[in-house]
């Protein structure tokens, strides 16, 4: 009987969460591991969190030498459609201290469509540029 009740509770929870139209497997905290950019794997530090409708991503990495790290700060709404992950960003700030022409990039609330796949405890998000993030689920 306990197994039946647990099963029904899980089905109800998944039904409620799927009403948002998003992949419920994304919900929770993720640790960024690698940013594959221009053919090079760059270590990432930070945190990405998905709720039922919102996301927040804050990552640090090194593209160039120098005292100040590069950073991406993104937050807003998201939705999934098949293998597509569509970010509807309220905030997108990219800091590039090694780029004298554009050290700070502030696009105005962009919508960005990426593809994603889950591989066990890993999430791979591939952007239109073909650069991608590799993240690992946090179980703490």
Oligomerization category of the chains in this entry: single chain
Distance linking N and C termini: 30 Å
Strand fraction band? over 45%
Biggest sheet: strands, sense, closure? 8 strands, antiparallel, barrel
CATH architecture: Beta Barrel
Describe the 3D structure.
With about 140 residues, this protein is mainly beta. The chain has one domain (about 25-135): Lipocalin (Beta Barrel), CATH 2.40.128.280. The chain is built from 1 helix and 10 strands, in the order H-E-E-E-E-E-E-E-E-E-E. It is globular and about 40 Å long. The two termini are about 30 Å apart. Residues about 5-20 have low confidence and may be disordered.
Question: Which properties best describe this structure?
Answer:
1 helix, 10 strands, mainly beta, 140 residues
Question: Can I get a quick summary?
Answer:
With 140 residues, the chain is mostly beta strands.
Helix/strand layout:
Layout: H1 2-18, E1 28-37, E2 40-43, E3 45-50, E4 54-61, E5 70-81, E6 84-95, E7 104-105, E8 111-119, E9 122-126, E10 132-137
Antiparallel strand pairs: 1-2, 1-3, 1-10, 3-4, 4-5, 5-6, 6-7, 6-8, 8-9, 9-10
């Amino acid at each position: 009987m306990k197994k039946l009740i647990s099963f029904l509770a899980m089905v109800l929870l998944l039904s409620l969460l799927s009403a948002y139209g998003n992949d419920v497997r994304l919900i929770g905290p993720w640790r960024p591991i690698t940013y594959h950019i221009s053919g090079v794997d760059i270590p990432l530090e930070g945190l990405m969190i998905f709720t039922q409708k919102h996301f927040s991503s804050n990552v640090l990495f090194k593209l160039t030498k120098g005292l100040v790290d590069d950073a991406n700060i993104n937050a807003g709404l998201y939705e999934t459609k098949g293998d597509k992950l569509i970010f509807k960003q309220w905030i997108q700030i990219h800091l590039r201290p090694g780029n004298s022409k554009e050290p700070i990039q502030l696009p105005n609330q962009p919508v960005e469509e990426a593809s994603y796949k889950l591989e066990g405890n890993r999430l791979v998000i591939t952007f239109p540029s073909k650069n991608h993030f590799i993240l690992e689920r946090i179980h703490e």
